């Protein structure tokens, strides 16, 4: 006759403690190896300007600042073409309502992207209530078959990104 052996004993507390410490050490090691594979010189991202983009009826782009604050004289606007057209950039002009030229992306032909900075509260800062209007020197931005739709906009202070719109919506 077979007797079923009944054993109510589990793993001893000493072995359980050793197993828990070993699992913790292994997980910590995996975390250290993972963190060492991340790039260490990725640059600083200090996004502290809230931005909102909308297309106007003239096919221009109105970029509204919804929050945060940066001295306008330190801010540089970059327009990045994800389709290989490169980067065009400019420093914002002195506060007030001023027009400025951002540049001509490499594959855009004669279309030059321009902008107008509106310091609506006149405090020499880019902050809530201020806006940037982007347009082309040849009329509407879609001129020459090009449009800012899908472009990435970044506001930079030095090498730090202080505001970004990942891709302008259509």
Quick tags:
mainly beta; 2 domains; 4-stranded antiparallel β-sheet; 170 residues
Describe the structure.
With 170 residues, the chain is mainly beta. It folds into 2 domains: 32 residues; 116 residues, no CATH class. The chain contains 1 helix and 11 strands. Strands 1-2-9-7-6 form a 5-stranded antiparallel sheet, with no helix packed on it. Strands 5-4-10-11 form a 4-stranded antiparallel sheet, with no helix packed on it. The radius of gyration is 27 Å and the shape is elongated. The N and C termini lie far apart (80 Å).
Number of helices: 1
Shape: elongated
How many strands, which pairing sense, and closed or not: the largest β-sheet? 5 strands, antiparallel
Overall number of domains: 2
**Averaging pLDDT over every residue, what do you get?**
74
Secondary structure: helix percent: 10-25%
What is the strand content?
35-45%
N-end to C-end Cα span: 80 Å
Structural class: mainly beta
Order of helices and strands: HEEEEEEEEEEE
Q: Report the radius of gyration as a whole number of Å.
A: 27 Å
| Order of strands across the main sheet | 1-2-9-7-6
Low-confidence stretches: none
State the total count of DSSP E strands.
Answer: 11
């Amino acid at each position: 006759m077979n007797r079923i052996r009944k054993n109510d004993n589990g793993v001893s507390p000493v072995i359980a403690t050793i197993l828990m410490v070993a699992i913790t050490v292994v997980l910590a090691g995996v975390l250290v190896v993972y963190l060492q594979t991340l790039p260490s010189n990725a640059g600083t991202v200090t996004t502290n300007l809230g931005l909102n983009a909308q297309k106007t009826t003239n096919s221009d782009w109105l970029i509204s600042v919804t929050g945060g604050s940066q001295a306008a004289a330190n801010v540089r606007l970059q327009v990045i073409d994800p389709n290989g057209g490169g980067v065009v950039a400019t420093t914002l002009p002195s506060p007030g309502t001023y027009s400025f030229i951002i540049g001509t992306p490499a594959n855009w032909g004669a279309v030059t992207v321009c902008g107008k900075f509106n310091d609506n509260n006149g405090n020499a800062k880019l902050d809530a209530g201020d806006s940037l209007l982007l347009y082309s020197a040849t009329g509407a931005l879609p001129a020459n078959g090009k449009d800012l739709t899908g472009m990435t906009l970044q506001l930079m202070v030095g090498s730090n990104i202080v505001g970004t719109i990942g891709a302008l919506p259509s």
